[in-house]
Amino acid sequence: MAELKLLGVSLSPFSRRVEWALKIKGVEYEFVEEELQNKSPLLLESNPIHKKIPVLIHNGKPICESMIIVEYIDETFEGPFILPKDPYDRAIARFWAKFFDEKCMPVMGKALFGSGEESDKAKEELGELIKILENELKDKKFFVGDKFGFADMAGNLMAYWMAIVEEASGNVFVTSEKFPIFCAWRDEYANCSPIKEHFPPREALLAHFNARFQAAAAASASK
Amino acid sequence: MAELKLLGVSLSPFSRRVEWALKIKGVEYEFVEEELQNKSPLLLESNPIHKKIPVLIHNGKPICESMIIVEYIDETFEGPFILPKDPYDRAIARFWAKFFDEKCMPVMGKALFGSGEESDKAKEELGELIKILENELKDKKFFVGDKFGFADMAGNLMAYWMAIVEEASGNVFVTSEKFPIFCAWRDEYANCSPIKEHFPPREALLAHFNARFQAAAAASASK
C-alpha cells in the first residue's frame, strides 16, 4: 500500500480540505499533528519555500498548498470526483476556489484580526463578498452542479469556521435575514456526507478562537 | 467551428499566457483589444466579479482568470499538453504557477511602483524570490520535465517583461553574475517555440513602461 502522510493542524481549514478529499476518495492516511510554534523538521524540509501546513507526503514525495493537494488527490486516487468532469465546470469550480482563497480569506483575516479602521473597512468589504456568493448560489445547492465539490471545499472557512469565529469575536457578519441563500448553502454543507462526519469539533474550535481573541484583547489593553 | 474570442490587452502578460496556450494548441481565435480605461460592455458582463482581462469566450461562455483559462484550453483542445500528464508533476507545475502569481507578482509591483521604503523592502524581497527560483532551476531547462509548460507560462512577467521594465525604470534586479541560472532560463524561454514568435514587441513594451514611469515621476514631482 502507498505510504500517505498528512502533515497538518487538525483545527485548520486548510488541513481539513485535504482530509476531506482523502475521505471522499476513501484513502487511508496517517495524520501528523504539527505545532505551528514548533514546526517539525519533516515539515520544514517538505515545504522549504512556505514552511506551511498542510503537506501531503505520498511515497516520500511532498505536495504543498491545500487546493493543489486536493487536485493531486483527485487525479491520483479512484473514487468520486472532486472536480467536475466537464472542462467548463472545472473552470468555474477553480474560479470560485480562487475567489475564496484570494478575495475572501485575506478580507476575513483583516475584518477579524485587523485594528480599528482597517477592520471596519474589511467588515464592509466582507459583506460585499458574501453578497457576491449569495448571488452566485441563487438556485443552486452547491457551487457547481448541485454536488459538493472543489469550490465548496475551498469555501470551508466561510461555511463552517466563520460562524464559530463570529461567536468567539462577538462580530456577526452573516444572518439568515441578510443572506438567506448563503445560509442555505451553509446548511447543505453541514449535512453533506462524508464531510459532516469530519468537521473539527465545534467546542474545540470555539475554545481555540476564544483564547485567540482574549490574547489579542490582552495584548491591545497592555499597549 | 467553435467561436473563440479573447478579450485582452496585447501588451499584458496575463493576456499573453492565454494567447500562448491557444498558439500551442494551434487553435484559431479572435483577439479583442480592450482599453482598461474604458472597458467594453462585453468585458464587464463576461467578468462581472473582477472586471479584468483576460476573458476567453468559448461558444458564448466566458472563462476568467488567466491560468484557469490556460487549464481550460489544455483540457478542451487537442495538441501538445501544457500541464504535464503525471499528477505529481502537475502539482509541481501548479505550485510554481501559484508562486509566481501570489508571491512574485505583488512584490514586483511594489518594488517598481511603490514609494520609498515600501519599494526598498520589496526590492530586497524580490531578490530573495529570484534566489528561490534560481535554486529551483538548478540542472533544469524549464520548471517541469525540461519542457516549456504551465509554470513557465505563469512566470512570463519575470521571464520577458521584467528586463524591459528594468530598462525603463533604471532599476536592475537581475544580472547574469548574480543569477546565472535564472538568466539561462530566461534565454531558453526567449528561444522557445511557439512562444518566441508571440512575445509582444520589445519596443512597444519599452515605450509603454517609459511613459508609465515618466507619468509616475511627473505625478510625484507635482505633489
TrEMBL record, chains A, B:
InterPro entries: Glutathione-S-Trfase_C-like, Glutathione-S-Trfase_C_sf, Glutathione_S-Trfase, Glutathione_S-Trfase_N, GST_C, GST_C_Tau, Omega/Tau-like, Thioredoxin-like_sf
Residue stretches making up the GST N-terminal domain: 2-81
Keywords on record: Transferase
Domain GST C-terminal: 86-213
Top-level lineage group: Eukaryota
High-level lineage: Eukaryota, Viridiplantae, Streptophyta, Embryophyta, Tracheophyta
Organism this protein belongs to: Capsicum annuum (Capsicum pepper)
SUPFAM superfamilies hit by this protein: GST C-terminal domain-like, Thioredoxin-like
GO CC, alphabetical: cytoplasm
Gene3D superfamilies: 1.20.1050.10, Glutaredoxin
Protein name, per record: Probable glutathione S-transferase
This enzyme's EC code(s): 2.5.1.18
Family: Belongs to the GST superfamily. HSP26 family.
Reactions mediated catalytically: RX + glutathione = an S-substituted glutathione + a halide anion + H(+)
GO molecular function: glutathione transferase activity
GO term, biological process aspect, one: glutathione metabolic process
Keyword DNA damage: no
